[in-house]
Structures are given as structure tokens and as C-alpha cells.
From TrEMBL, chains A, B:
Membrane-spanning ranges: none
InterPro entries tied to this protein: HTH_LacI (IPR000843), LacI/GalR-like_sensor (IPR046335), Lambda_DNA-bd_dom_sf (IPR010982), Peripla_BP_I (IPR028082)
Keyword annotations: DNA-binding, Transcription, Transcription regulation
CDD domains reported in the protein's UniProt record: HTH_LacI (cd01392), PBP1_LacI_sugar_binding-like (cd06267)
Protein's UniProt name: LacI family transcriptional regulator
One Gene Ontology molecular-function label: transcription cis-regulatory region binding
SMART domains linked to this entry: HTH_LACI
Gene source species: Streptomyces phyllanthi
Signal sequence extent: none
Domain spans labelled HTH lacI-type: 3-57
Length: 340, 340
DNA sequence: AAACTGAACGCAAACGCTTGCGCAACAACG
DNA sequence: CGTTGTTGCGCAAGCGTTTGCGTTCAGTTT
């Protein structure tokens, strides 16, 4: 049916071993024979069977990527960038979309990547048991987003610094009542919400502003959650004049809530987000920009490097990408008349 | 190192063949032996090698998914849904992100999925040569989005009907100067822009409105393109009082352009989009909603069905998902004073 | 009681490649 | 002109499964 390596060997008048070596650029084949084999292979349309070659060699030329919600902008963008790097290097990517808890459980118990991948890139934070499962694969591991894990090369950003710049911006504009829309950390050691919150507290303290727990609300990192959180903040006795949302999605939800309350941004309330979502510019959202695609690409590159030089020293187990506060139209000095 | 099928066989006191049959639920194994083997396998942590089993059986239990920009909301969402269906059915997915032309060329020339997948789902429209390449794989094929292709099971929506409902809505509101922001079809037989445009023309004609070519602008299906297109429309001698954007991204770009021109939506200009992007609700965009995730899931299901019953008659080569006009806040009757 | 069933299981041959090793052939050396 | 290297290539043994076929054995049939 399909042409196999022995077909090529026969047609080229050599042995299968020579074809194998020739096509993969291994030494032990003269240049002329190599060229001849390449020509024959091309003419026959020969493509090596991956299963056979990985069975024989142990190498799969495949990377496993596990990610939570790939439909969401952040993860989709990271995945997109990582995939480009992998495929440019000749690797295929096996995608595991672990958004739902049972998909996640299914993955970690049956571990379908075993013996199928040369490395895995994780876009989610595995818990200790999951980490152990991944490590048991015996392949290089890398991840994006915060949360240091043993055996992982992780690339992320300085969440503290980013959040500090956002909150400090609000302080510098003269705001004193600054709310925060955060996301619970949940059961996992996903440190981002914690770090961003700490930065918020630090900046308030450094500005001599007393922290008011009533100004914090949980937005669960979704648009709807952000809307609910903002609504809750507006219902307090003294609503904030500015809010720092830990993600752009939540910021957009907050803006929606404000609009529903007939409040204008930034005249009544300033809003600053985090991420620099592709649509942040569209809605004029001031936010702290992080290189999302950049993180995916960088993590992918680091993984490939580990594959190329397995015993090379790993200089940085944790690389931090730059962040930058992007000023747009949703922040302004507090309105002297106060909200509404 | 890792435990193989012979290890399990030895531990269970049976042959490897029996282990293989037992674990895969094949007949020819008594229930007690099967249970015993299952227990031993679980206890040893045995997981069959995919490469070996697919080499031997020809089955890979893997689906290839080729998609253009997986970072974009639409494709990310489709992919997300499809992946869930596949993985729930025990299939892995090999992802090929073919956004850039050379990634695309690379894919279709080296065809890395050959002998690696049991089926392929295409989220892009392959040109004739690419279609031939895919067909040469000899596996079931399915695709989303319009464009009928031989050998493909395709699921999509009725673009004409959707666009008609959007434009008709504007007409019913009383608009007579209705612009359209479209996207060029490009070299591929991507019929969506064509269909949506035809619907626009049809509705205008049916309403007795003369078509003005100056009211059409190309937005390339991106936010920036939509902004440029709207800017161009506003620069004409008689700007439209309403615009139909062929995608929500372009609609958002248009809204941004309008805001920059200090025009308000919908008082000065009405805007209606297409897709029901996850953020359409956030910006209050009136749009025609299509089941994006639904299309991905449905295409995946149809593919699995073909895999299960290879020679079943395929009742519908082309399935159409329902659409629905969602009224929000960006459309209103024309302002009697006219724009600006 | 002989012959015939299935059912349950083992044997061994694929599947298509990779790779350590061996063996020519030939060049370069003392 | 023997020796020692190189270089280029073929042999054959895997890699871990699946599966067609053969064997055994308990349980029907005549």
C-alpha cells in the first residue's frame, strides 16, 4: 500500500539501514548515495512511519501540551505561539485540553502521553500528585505562568511588579479608595492571584492608605465574575473611585457593570486591568501588558534546548518576561464630585 | 524500565496475546482471567505503548486537527470543543497550527500526519491541491466552516440566512444607507464573505434600496481592519447610518473608529456584527449568534461516527447549525438629524 | 465410546523502522 | 608489502504490540 523503507531501499539498490541513515543525515553514507536515496525517496513519495521509528528509537518528535481552557484568549495565544516554535523545529504537538475536572483526572490517571512524547509543556499548574505523574514520564518538562515546581523550567512574569505598577498608577492619579477585583487561588498553588494581591496591599501601605477589605471582590477571572464583583463593590457604603482588576476579562466585566449603573469610565471610576488582552485596546483599557505569545514561544524554545542538549546545565529554571503598564483611556484622576 | 506487556503476562501467568486481548476487551478471554490481568496491569502501572500498538494494528487513536489561527477566539473555541469530544472518546489530538503560509506549505508537503492519525478535522478550507493531499491519507475527513469539498463532512451555518437577518434588522429599523464591512475571500474558496455579501445585496434589493458600492469596505476580518474600514466609510460624502460588519471583531474595530470620531453608537450609527464573540455581550453588540463550540463538537462527533461505522451511509455530508439574531445595544432607528 | 464442537489460550509472524556490529575495500603508514 | 586506520555499507536483532492460526480440553452430540 504505502511505500515503506524497504521499497525505497530496493529501488535505490541499497539496504534499509542505509536508507534510514541517509534520510536522517546520519554519518556512514557517502554523499552520492545519500543524494540518490533522497531522490528515489522523493520520487516514491516515501514518508517514514512515525510509530515504527519511534518504537525503534524511543524518540517521538512529539511534544505534549497540556492546557486548561484553550478557547480563552490567554491560553489560546500561548498555545498558538508554542506550537509555531515546535512545528518549525520539526516537532508535532499532542494537545490535551484539561479544562474540565474530569478531563483533567482522566489525563493524569491514564497518562496517555507516556511513551508518546519527548517532552511536555504545561500551561496549567499541576498539583503535587499531578507533578509527580508528569515527572514519572521521565521527559523534560516546562511550564508557563507562575508557580515554581521542581523539575520544571518555567517562564512567567513578575506578577508583583506588574500589579504594583498598576496600583501605583492609580495612587499617582490621586485615588485613595482603590478597589480590587481578584480571583481566588483555588486548591492549586496558582500564585498569581496571591502575588498580585500582595502587590496591591504593598502599594497601598507604601502610600499610607489604609486597606479596606470591603474593597476587594472575587471575579474568578471571567467577564461575568468581573461584572458581579464590580456590582458588589458599587453596592458598598463607600464605593471605590478606581479599581484594579487582576485580568482584562474581569476589567471588561467591571466596565460593563459600571455602564449598567450609568457610571462612566474614567470620569466616575477608573479601571485598570492586567494582561493586555487583544481587545483591551478596542475598549481603551489601561492595563499591564505582558508578552503572552512571547511566553509560549520562550517556554517552547527552552524545552527544545533541553531536548537538544540533555545534560547541559540549565542556567535559569525560571525566566521572567518583561511587563509594561500601558496607559489608555480608562484611568483618570478621581472626580472631585465622587462617583455618581 | 517501563513495564511492557510481557511483564504483565509473566506476572499474571499468561501469554502476551492474552493480556492484549484482555485489556482491550477482545473476545477469547474468560472473565476471571480478564479480571486477574486487569488487576495485575493496574498494580504494575502498565500502559500500552501507542507506537507499538499502532505499528502493529494500524490504528492510532489519534485525530489530526489542522487549524488556522488557534489564538483567535473563533478557532480556539471550535478547537476546544472538538478536543473535548475527541478526548472523551479516547482519542488524542495532534494539533497543526497553520496560520502562516509557510507553516501551511510545510504541513502539506511533508504531511506529518500520514500514518499517524485515524482521521483529520480541518478548521480551514484547503485548496484543491491541499484537499488532494488530505484525501491521499485515506482517512475520514471533516471540516467546519463553509465551502463544500468532496470527501469532507462539513458542518457550518447558513451564512446567507444569518446575514439576511442582520441586514433586515437594520432595514426594519428604518435605515436606508447601510454600509457593510466585509473581508475579501482571498485565493481560497472560502465562501463565507461571498455569501454574506450576497445576502446584504438581496435584502437591500428586496427593500428597494439602491446599492451604493461606496458603502462597502474591506476589513479583513480583524479588529484593525474593521477600524480602517469604518474610517473609510466615514470619509465618504454620505456616510452610512448603519453598518453590517461580517464579523464581531470587525464590528468592534468599527465601534472604535466611531468613538474616535466622537460618534456614538447607536445614536449616530448603528452597528451589527456576526459571530456572537464572547465579548460581544460586554460591548453590547447586536450580532448574529452562531454555535461556535457547537460546530466543533458536532464535526468531531460526525468524524467519530465515521470511524465507528466506516461503511455506514453518510446521511448528510453537510450539516447546518442554527443561527439567531441577538439584539443588544448597538442598533437603533436612524437619528433624524443624521450622523454627526 | 468415538467424533465433534466451541471456548480459552499460546505461538510466532508480522508491523516498519533504528542501530550495534561486522566486513569489505581502499588509503596511508612504516 | 604487511599493518593499521578509515570509510561505506549490509546484517540482523531488536522496539512492544496485534492477530491469524493451532492446540488443548471440557462439554456436547451421535
Amino acid at each position: 500500500m504505502t511505500v515503506s523503507i524497504t521499497d525505497v531501499a530496493r529501488a535505490a539498490g541499497v539496504s534499509a539501514s542505509t536508507v534510514s541513515r541517509a534520510l536522517r543525515g546520519r554519518p556512514g553514507v557517502s554523499e552520492e548515495v545519500r543524494a540518490q536515496i533522497a531522490a528515489v525517496a522523493a520520487q516514491l513519495g516515501y514518508i517514514a512511519s512515525r510509530s515504527a521509528s519511534s518504537l525503534a528509537s524511543g524518540r517521538t518528535y512529539t511534544i505534549g501540551v497540556v492546557a486548561p481552557y484553550i478557547g480563552r484568549w490567554f491560553f489560546g495565544t500561548v498555545l498558538d505561539a508554542a506550537e509555531q516554535v515546535f512545528s518549525a523545529a520539526g516537532y508535532d504537538v499532542l494537545l490535551y485540553n484539561l479544562g474540565s475536572p474530569d478531563a483533567r483526572k482522566r489525563f493524569f490517571t491514564s497518562l496517555p502521553v507516556r511513551k508518546r512524547v519527548d517532552a511536555v509543556l504545561s500551561l496549567l499548574i499541576p498539583d503535587p500528585a499531578e507533578t509527580a505523574a508528569l515527572r514519572s514520564l521521565g521527559v523534560p518538562l516546562a511550564g508557563t505562568v507562575g508557580g515554581a515546581r521542581d523539575g520544571f523550567t518555567v517562564v512567567g512574569i513578575d506578577d508583583r511588579a506588574g500589579a504594583e505598577s498598576a496600583v501605583r498608577h492609580l495612587v499617582n492619579l490621586g485615588h485613595r479608595r482603590i478597589g480590587m477585583i481578584s480571583g481566588a487561588s483555588g486548591p492549586l498553588q496558582w500564585t498569581t492571584p496571591i502575588d498580585r494581591r500582595q502587590a496591591y496591599l504593598d502599594v497601598l501601605a507604601e502610600a499610607g492608605i489604609e486597606h479596606d477589605p470591603a474593597l476587594e471582590a472575587d471575579g474568578g477571572y471571567t467577564v461575568e465574575g468581573g461584572e458581579r464583583a464590580m456590582t458588589a463593590l458599587l453596592a458598598t457604603s463607600r464605593p471605590p473611585t478606581a479599581v484594579f482588576a487582576q485580568s482584562d476579562e474581569m476589567a471588561m466585566g467591571a466596565m460593563r457593570a459600571l455602564r449598567r449603573h450609568r457610571l462612566t469610565v474614567p470620569d466616575d471610576v477608573s479601571v485598570v486591568g492586567f494582561d493586555d488582552h487583544e481587545l483591551a485596546e478596542v475598549v481603551g483599557l489601561t492595563t499591564v501588558s505582558q508578552p503572552v505569545a512571547g511566553q509560549g514561544a520562550e517556554a517552547a524554545r527552552l524545552l527544545l534546548r533541553q531536548l537538544d542538549e540533555p545534560d547541559a546545565e540549565r542556567p535559569a529554571d525560571k525566566v521572567r518576561m518583561p511587563i509594561r503598564l500601558v496607559l489608555r483611556e480608562t484611568t483618570a484622576p478621581p472626580n472631585p464630585r465622587g462617583p455618581q
